[in-house]
Amino acid sequence: MKRRARLVLEDGSIYEGVSFGFDTNSDGEVVFNTGMTGYVETLTDPSYRGQILVLTYPLIGNYGVPRETLHSGLPHPYESPAMQIQGLVVSRYEDSYSHFAAEKSLGEWLIESRTPAIMNVDTRSLTKRIRERGTMRGRVVVDGVSVQKESVDMSRVVSIVSAKGIYRYSAPTPSGKRIMLVDCGVKHNIIRSLLNRGVDIIRVPYDFDFGSEDMDADGILISNGPGDPKDLKGIVRNIQLTIKKKKPLMGICLGHQLIALAADGDTYKMRYGHRSQNQPVKSLIENVSFITSQNHGYAVRRDRIPPGFMEWFVNVNDGTNEGIRHKNLPVISTQFHPEAFPGPTEAGILFDEFLDLL
Amino acid sequence: MERERSFPKSVLVLGSGALKIGEAGEFDYSGSQALKALREEGIRTVLINPNIATIQTSEGMADEVYLLPITPQFVEDVIKREKIDGILLSFGGQTALNCGLELYDSGVLSKYGVRVLGTPIEAIRDTEDRDLFKKRLGEIGVRVAKSRACRSPEEVREAAGDIGYPVMLRGAFALGGLGSAIVESESELNDIIGVIFSMVPQVLVEESLKGFKEIEYEVVIDRHGNGITVCNMENMDPIGIHTGESIVVAPSQTLNNYEYHMLREIALRTIRHLGIVGECNIQYALDPNSDDYRVIEVNARLSRSSALASKATGYPLAYVAAKLALGFSLTDLPNKITQKTKAFFEPALDYCVVKVPRWDLEKFAKVEKTIGSSMKSVGEVMAIGRDFLSALQKALRMIGVGVEGLTVRLWSMWTSERLSQMQVLIESLR
């Protein structure tokens, strides 16, 4: 028998539904994503750590959850080893999935992952409320349940999702190039995208002193990740040293924000962020535009583009900053996700652009 | 707003033509949108359309309306008389596109200095000619169904062996599916090949895609190569059933992220490679048991599916396509819905759209009452719901055959092998 459950928001509003995940209460920041596919990739994206995720697309679960297959030691199509969210809120959930790659239902996976989920919620009115009031904290409450999912301290969330040790990955067809990947909660497809381009990877934890010890890597990539970039002073210092050494450097999402901070730019918290697969961005330098995959609640201030840098990409919808690049040093950085997964794949050419800088 | 060259002065729009099965009112909508888009730029518009019962021929839509058949001879007369210097071919369905190709080939367009706006003629030709199409997609490693034209039973046997059983045999130059069959083995082939050659002079041997999912994407692309897929759609019936006969759902319901974006990426790569400017439709067959796919076809024009996609998403496809044909870019054109953002965006739906065809077979004596590869429906209903079931129920109710929706009795028939035979289904309810 399914239990009744509800989402209670910070502003006192309550959204009723039915539990279809693990029966536990849970706290987190409530955010929404508008992607129409890709719940497996989204739920395992470490940038969602600590958040209760609302999916605006109303039919969730149709294609089930796939078998894990290992590619270069990484489970495919999972973006990290585990489900990351604090809770899931959907409109319609489909338990009887249909897909050749599926081995279980989304509900079963949520239960295994000890993550609560609510269905039959009016996600349209919920999303409208978040858009009006801005991102809020919220709580999933399941009727008759006293268990509480451990809440996440957002000021140290990167230390939770970052790899604990140093890992090395070898490209299937090596080009001889090697990148040090600073893991702030990296999505697997960043690793896959580099390996597929023949790049070997040294993946280091977020607190590794890559500014002084880069293990002779040809370039440094600062990954995506959750939380406020201003909580990560150590990485900022290491980025400053890296730029000083004129080492090739790329940032994605949180990595982009950190590069901006390191170069004397500024970041701010957005009203409700960009979490979708249809964000249009336009280059101010070349004549190109992409539809991009995004997941961020903080952004780089356009009126504080760091000295020495050019604004590279802007969002066509709301004009927010989407990328910067240095005028003469090999430093490039984007707010959106060139690795996609979920989402459109055309911005993948930015990895090629980075490799050209090595 | 930036644009490449000066606008033409007088643009001829080839209209929707007569209403008949397979060529319906969708093109009235797309032509009307195109006229509106042109007039906004102060361009003089001339429309040819023999169908008086259309919106586009109403007063105030075009500056001049000619109620004439869309055939090369009449179109040439109008071009001459109206001093036309630009023409839109992709807003009147296949008839208009074919007429445009003929006018180009016979030199009429160059004789009168008429510029084809939007997708160039070469790109249209690449999508219309089967061999060119295969060659062009092969250049970028995009998969199309293997096929070979054969003139003798021996050639057919050899081709079937190379392609691998089961194969689809199609009689060339034949209408109504004459001479087509799926054969599973060489002995089956030997049984029927003689009969087929007694009916048709040439047989096309194709790899069979029976049971593959049929998926479509609507693509919009500007002259800079900025491209979006406005919407994808999944046919409830697999390959082999005409889209016009199938229940169609938007967005796709059974594709995961990898499949959705693999097909999206192939769509954009293919359309850029072909050099299309404006709107087009790409159709795929997708293996339900792997991520293997084939591109079935590309329609370098507004189509039945684009009309559906336009209504399903609110994205004004025909209007935007006409603006792109004039040289505007997607990142400059405003989004007509929000008024704040640009046309360079992909709608993210928070609902589900179901299209159900409407048949009227009582009017046709002796017609086969099952659905297949030719279109027999005379109209369709589109319903929007917050989930698939509610949208389907609404559509079934609104189709106007007295059905309450999908009831228990209907469900039991549905799950039998008559799964896709909507006509049987709906008649059974009366």
Compile the SSE list and pairings.
The complex is a heterodimer of chains A (358) and B (430).
Chain A: E1 4-9, E2 14-19, E3 26-33, H1 39-43, E4 51-55, E5 59-60, E6 65-66, E7 69-71, E8 74-76, E9 87-89, E10 92-93, E11 102-104, H2 106-112, E12 117-119, H3 123-133, E13 136-142, H4 157-161, E14 167-169, E15 177-183, H5 188-196, E16 199-205, E17 219-222, H6 233-244, E18 249-252, H7 254-262, E19 267-283, E20 289-300, E21 309-315, E22 321-326, E23 331-334, H8 349-357
Parallel strand pairs in A: 3-4, 4-9, 5-10, 9-12, 15-16, 15-17, 17-18, 18-23
Antiparallel strand pairs in A: 1-2, 1-13, 2-12, 3-13, 6-11, 7-8, 14-16, 19-20, 19-21, 21-22, 22-23
Helix pairs in contact in A: 6-7
Chain B: E1 10-14, H1 26-40, E2 44-48, E3 64-66, H2 72-82, E4 86-88, H3 93-105, H4 108-111, E5 115-116, H5 121-128, H6 130-139, E6 147-150, H7 153-163, E7 167-171, E8 181-183, H8 186-199, E9 203-207, E10 213-221, E11 227-235, E12 248-250, H9 257-274, E13 278-286, E14 293-299, H10 304-313, H11 317-325, E15 352-358, E16 379-385, H12 388-398, H13 408-414, H14 422-427
Fraction of helical residues of chain A: 10-25%
The count of DSSP E runs of length 2 or more, i.e. the number of strands of chain B, is: 16
Q: What structural category arises from helix and sheet content of chain B?
A: alpha+beta
- What is the average of the pLDDT values of chain A? 96
Helix content of chain B: 25-40%
Residues in β-strands, percent of chain A: 25-35%
Question: How many helix segments of chain B?
Answer: 14
CA-to-CA gap between the ends of chain A? 58 Å
Largest interface: A-B, 43 and 36 residues
* Lateral strand order in the biggest sheet of chain B: 14-13-10-11-12-15-16
Main sheet characteristics of chain A? 10 strands, mixed
Low-confidence stretches of chain A: none
Mean pLDDT of chain B: 87
Number of helices of chain A: 8
Strands of chain A, count: 23
Distance between the termini of chain B: 57 Å
Rg of Cα set of chain B:
22 Å
